[in-house]
């Protein structure tokens, strides 16, 4: 629901053209934010401004963020969601598979947040939300690159909290478990069934369930929460 506060706020969601990022963008539109999404292909949901950007390409992010700020105003809320997997056992993992995943998931969040915080510092208000994964906390065999990148986001959020916490800026991590999306649809039926057995909730989560937590972290009720890691995983990672 739109409030006086959210109507003045501009949210940027990376990878908002599909999956979890799209659900987050839809929710923030419903909450009343002015929302921009980055996309390499396709476009964001209705009511959003789509800007073309690759989070691995600093120049394209510079141009995208300038466009968002020019058309919607200074960014107040950034959701670093864009991410990839390149799963294989460590023995078989190429240097390129490792670098590509870390550079997209962790480097991409760094490049996006670094550019978005300028206006937040000026406004003395900001919300930084990083989409990590249960994999980054629990560790998943076959995901050494992905787990390392997602765990790196925790240190990143906590360093930001110490640097910018005094300026009204919070930085938090959301750690989804298994969520219905193109990323999990790639798993074969047998693997999916095995994973479901391990989830106390007995089912995959939805993008909307991640979006609800992002919405709360972005809002005024979460103003005193920073450097936190919020699992949204049906109990899969309990205690990690
Ligand atoms: P999808 O594969 O459905 O979507 C990934 C999104 O990231 C797409 O919008 C994609 O854009 C974008 N993206 C990937 N690489 C880049 C890049 N270099 N530059 C810009 N955008 C890029 O994944 P999900 O929606 O499932 O995942 C979203 C986030 O949630 C990811 O960070 C993922 O790691 C995390 N996550 C997902 C879980 C799940 O079970 N699904 C569990 C835990 C965490 P494009 O369409 O152009 O490829």
From TrEMBL:
SMART domains: PKS_KR. InterPro entries: KR_dom (IPR057326), NAD(P)-bd_dom_sf (IPR036291), SDR (IPR050259), SDR_fam (IPR002347). Residues 9-182 form the Ketoreductase domain. It comes from the Bacteria. SUPFAM superfamilies: NAD(P)-binding Rossmann-fold domains. It holds the Pfam family adh_short_C2. Belongs to the short-chain dehydrogenases/reductases (SDR) family. This is Beta-ketoacyl-ACP reductase. It comes from Microbacterium nanhaiense.
């Amino acid at each position: 629901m739109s409030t006086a506060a959210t109507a003045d706020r501009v949210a940027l969601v990376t990878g908002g053209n599909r999956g979890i990022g799209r659900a987050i963008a839809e929710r923030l539109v419903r909450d009343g934010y002015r929302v921009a999404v980055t996309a390499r292909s396709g476009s964001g949901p209705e009511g959003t401004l789509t800007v073309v950007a690759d989070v691995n390409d600093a120049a394209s992010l510079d141009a995208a963020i300038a466009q968002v700020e020019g058309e919607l105003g200074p960014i107040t809320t950034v959701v670093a969601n864009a991410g990839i997997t390149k799963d294989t056992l460590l023995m078989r993992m190429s240097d390129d598979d490792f670098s590509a995943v870390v550079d997209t998931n962790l480097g991409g969040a760094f490049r996006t947040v670094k550019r978005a915080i300028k206006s937040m510092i000026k406004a003395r208000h900001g919300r930084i939300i990083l989409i990590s994964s249960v994999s980054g906390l629990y560790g998943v065999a076959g995901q050494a690159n992905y787990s390392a990148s997602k765990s790196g986001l925790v240190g990143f959020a906590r360093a930001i909290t110490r640097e910018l916490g005094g300026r009204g800026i919070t930085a938090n991590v959301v750690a989804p478990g298994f969520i219905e999306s193109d990323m999990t649809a790639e798993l074969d039926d047998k693997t999916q069934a095995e994973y479901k057995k391990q989830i106390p909730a007995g089912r995959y989560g939805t993008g909307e369930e991640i979006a609800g937590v992002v919405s709360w972290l972005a809002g005024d009720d979460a103003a005193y929460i920073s450097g936190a890691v919020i699992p949204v995983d049906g109990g899969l990672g309990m205690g990690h």
